[in-house]
Amino acid sequence: MRSLKKLVLTGLLFYSSFNAMAWGVLGHRIVGQIAESYLTPKAKLAIKTILGNESIAMSSNWADFIRSDSSYSYLTDYHYINLTDSINEVQLKKYLLTDTAKDVYTEINFLIKELKKKNLAKDKQQMYLRLLVHFVGDVHQPLHVSREEDWGGNKIKVQWFKEQTNLHSVWDEKLIDFQQLSYTEYAGAINYVTPSQKLQWQKTPLYDWVFESHELAVKIYNGVSLDNPKLGYRYNYDNIHIINAQLLKAGVRLAGILNEIFG
């Protein structure tokens, strides 16, 4: 297990200069908007008591916005988890069951546990709820569950149509922005899930969310040619369904967690 932890956590020092805004502003709001549609009345009331008139969608980017305040810099590591391409499902589950590192997996578990406390102070309730909404979105962005050595695809330079950018940015924002929809329009366009899908997604344990995203990250890496890194219409056509599925799963699963805590 010690060697496995070394494998998984090699260089877990986060790329402090890297702006790890999974999904970007629009994507996180889409996740929040979808989650609100699956909340129980009791959960909605409890969340309104905590957030006031701030919707889940509008609270979803708080964890990125407070990056401008250095007093919150300790939260940086919680937006992601570094994994090697070669780790398999069994190895990953074994590791996560004993995971004590600062990463998105341990932080989601911590936030759920804290928010279930009946005597939690109001200011902590508000902060922890905002963080939970954001980090559930983060763990569904495949390149936040990927390689440390290239900063989750930030070091992989690509051309998005005629714009010079990087692979991480394409998956954070470019693909979503390319659809030219508001977050409410986007949520409405993809928010179709059967009762059996909803139940299955919400019952899936957190370590499986991590592995699902990791598998997608490996495919994303393999799907880019470094010899001709020009991405455009075809890349959008081949990959937008992955984006949509991950946004939808994140929203449905976030609602499941919030209903468990508050509903």
Structure description:
The chain has 263 residues and is mainly α. Helices cover 59% and strands 5% of the residues. It has helices spanning 2-9, 24-36, 41-51, 56-59, 62-65, 89-97, 104-115, 122-139, 167-178, 183-190, 195-203, 206-222, 233-262; strands at residues 81-82, 145-146, 157-160, 163-166, 230-231. Strands 4-3-5 form a 3-stranded mixed beta sheet. 40% of the residues are buried.
Question: What percentage of residues falls in helices of 4 or more residues?
Answer: 55-70%
Which sheet architecture does the biggest sheet show?
3 strands, mixed
Class based on secondary structure composition and strand pairing: mainly alpha
Kindly provide the radius of gyration, computed on alpha-carbon positions and rounded to a whole number of angstroms: 18 Å
Helices and strands in order:
Layout lengths: L1 H8 L14 H13 L4 H11 L4 H4 L2 H4 L15 E2 L6 H9 L6 H12 L6 H18 L5 E2 L10 E4 L2 E4 H12 L4 H8 L4 H9 L2 H17 L7 E2 L1 H30 L1
Parallel strand pairs: 1-2, 3-5
Antiparallel strand pairs: 3-4
Helix pairs in contact: 2-8, 2-9, 2-10, 2-13, 3-13, 7-8, 8-13, 9-13, 11-13
Features:
mainly alpha, 5 strands, single chain, 263 residues, two-stranded parallel sheet
Give a summary of the structure in a few sentences.
The protein has 263 residues and is mainly alpha-helical. It has helices spanning 2-9, 24-36, 41-51, 56-59, 62-65, 89-97, 104-115, 122-139, 167-178, 183-190, 195-203, 206-222, 233-262; strands at residues 81-82, 145-146, 157-160, 163-166, 230-231. It has a 3-stranded mixed sheet. A two-stranded parallel sheet has the order 1-2.
